[in-house]
């Protein structure tokens, strides 16, 4: 299956928090989208790896993505080395996306920066034909390099290089985020309290989107960073 967009997250829920509004909008426009989680989020304070997997599948259903996979890297301890790069390369070559979206350059959780760099490096290496990989059935894969790599914004208030108008899709984003009930909803008082299951954090999802929307004269928006210049064909593309 060839996808238009492949989004990666270091943990289940990263993609939803970072770019679910944008993905929902692209899907509404007929784009095919997939999500790959690098880890199972097994070190999370609340819930469990199995519960997170179930929540991730529910979020994928709500967003109507075509595929969702988990590479089962070690939460907190995966590294950006050949072994991990090869596994990411296999997924890039399997789905052949035009656009890859991944974690930010830098963030509060160390896995986010590591994950963003790992995926970005793998996107480049995936285009080198002398790196040999195979599909699950053992057939050789062809080299493939996505046209662009974008980094969504998570905890830190990074200055975006561009923003996407997600007016009309914030509700879908919030549905997908709150599918992770173990992480964001405070229903079980036996579970420890965390920064992300507070009402303040849940509210921040909306007010960040509102603030970015305000800056572009829209209702809601999501921000992204890039590693190279964004090119446009003419000035009217920027209107």
TrEMBL record:
NCBIfam families reported for this sequence: thiol_BshB1
Protein name per the record: Bacillithiol biosynthesis deacetylase BshB1
InterPro entries named among the record's database cross-references: Bacillithiol_biosynth_BshB1, GlcNAc_PI_deacetylase-related, LmbE-like_dom_sf
Cited PANTHER family: N-ACETYL-ALPHA-D-GLUCOSAMINYL L-MALATE DEACETYLASE 1, N-ACETYLGLUCOSAMINYL-PHOSPHATIDYLINOSITOL DE-N-ACETYLASE-RELATED
Superkingdom assignment: Bacteria
């Amino acid at each position: 299956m060839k996808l238009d967009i492949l989004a990666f997250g270091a943990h289940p829920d990263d993609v939803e928090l970072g770019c679910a509004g944008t993905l929902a909008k692209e899907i509404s426009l007929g784009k095919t989208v997939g999500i790959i989680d690098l880890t199972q989020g097994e070190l999370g304070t609340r819930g469990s790896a199995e519960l997170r997997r179930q929540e991730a599948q529910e979020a994928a259903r709500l967003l109507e993505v075509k595929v969702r996979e988990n590479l089962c890297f070690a939460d907190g301890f995966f590294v950006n080395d050949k072994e991990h790069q090869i596994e990411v390369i296999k997924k890039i070559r399997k789905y052949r996306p035009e656009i890859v979206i991944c974690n930010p350059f830098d963030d509060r959780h160390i896995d986010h920066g590591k994950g963003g760099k790992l995926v970005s490096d793998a996107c480049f290496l995936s285009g080198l034909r002398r790196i040999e990989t195979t599909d699950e059935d053992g057939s050789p894969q062809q080299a493939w390099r996505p046209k662009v790599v974008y980094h969504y914004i998570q905890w830190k208030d990074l200055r975006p290089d561009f923003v996407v108008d997600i007016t009309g899709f914030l509700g879908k984003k919030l549905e997908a985020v709150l599918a992770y009930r173990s992480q964001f909803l405070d229903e079980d008082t036996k579970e420890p309290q965390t920064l992300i299951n507070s009402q303040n954090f849940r509210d921040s999802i909306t007010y960040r989107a509102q603030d970015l929307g305000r800056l572009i004269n829209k209702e809601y928006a999501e921000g992204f960073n890039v590693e190279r210049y964004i090119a446009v064909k003419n000035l009217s593309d920027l209107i």
